[in-house]
Amino acid sequence: MEPELLAEDAIPVSDPFMLFDEWLAEAKANEINDPTAMALATASPGCAPSVRMVLLKGHGSDLGPGGGFVFYTNQASRKASEIAANPQAALLFHWKSLRRQIRIEGQLEPVSTEEADKYFASRARDSQLGAHASDQSAPLADRREFLDRFEEVRKRYEGKHVPRPQHWGGYRLVPQAIEFWHDRPFRLHERRRFTRAGSNWASTLLYP
User: Is residue 64 very low, low, confident or very high in pLDDT (cuts 50, 70, 90)?
Assistant: First the structure.
C-alpha cells in the first residue's frame, strides 16, 4: 500500500487549538479568498436547520474558559434569533486548495461589550456604516433603498466617530468537539475527532 495512505501524521494527536493554528496558518498562505471563512449552522426552535458563511474574527484557548471561535453579526438577524432560541451550533472550515476540512461543534455565547466595541472600532469605516444601514435578514424592496440608507448614515457620521450599533455584536462558539479531515487518494481519507474531557481533550481516528 502507498506510504501516503498509511501515514497518520497529517493529523497528529495534539492540542486541537494548536493544530487549528497550524492549519489556519497554512490556509492563510495558500487559499486565494477568505481563508477565515466558515460555514455556521444553527437551527430554529422548530429544529429547521440553517447555514451561512461568516468570518472567523478570533480563536484559541485564551478566549475565556474552554477557548473558542468568534464571529460578529447583526443581533436582529435570523441567525441571532435562532442562536437565542437554541445556542447549539456547528462550524465548518473547508480549504479546498489544501484538501482539508475542520468541523467544530459546541455552544454559542455572546462576547462582552468591550470585545465587540474593540472589534467594531477595527473595521473599515464603510463596514461600520453598513452595520448601521442594514436591517440584516429583513425584507428589502430594492437595492436602492439600502444604498439610500447607507448614504444617509454616511452623511450623519461625516467627520465623526462611528459608534457600534446596539444591535451589533459577537458570539463565541465554545467547542465540545473538533474534527480534522485530510484528503487521501481514492477517498481513503484521514479523520481525527477531538472531544472535550473536562479540562483536557480525548481523540480518536474515525473511518472516512
Answer: confident
Indicate if 103 belongs to the active site: no
Residue 105's pLDDT band (boundaries 50, 70, 90)? very high
Q: What would the grid cell of residue 13 be? A: 494527536
Give the percent of the chain with pLDDT over 70: 95
Instruction: Provide the CA 180 distance to its chain's centre, in angstroms.
Output: 15
Residues 6+ apart with CB under 8 A from 111: 70, 169, 170, 171, 172
Helix (H) or strand (E) holding 35: none
Q: Which three cell numbers stand for residue 106?
A: 459546541
Kindly state the helix (H) or strand (E) to which residue 193 belongs, with its residue range.
strand 190-197
Give the residue among 200, 206, 202 at the shortest CA–CA distance from 180.
206
The C-alpha atoms of residue 171 and residue 196 are separated, in whole angstroms, by 20
Q: Which of 52, 187, 193, 196 is catalytic?
A: 187
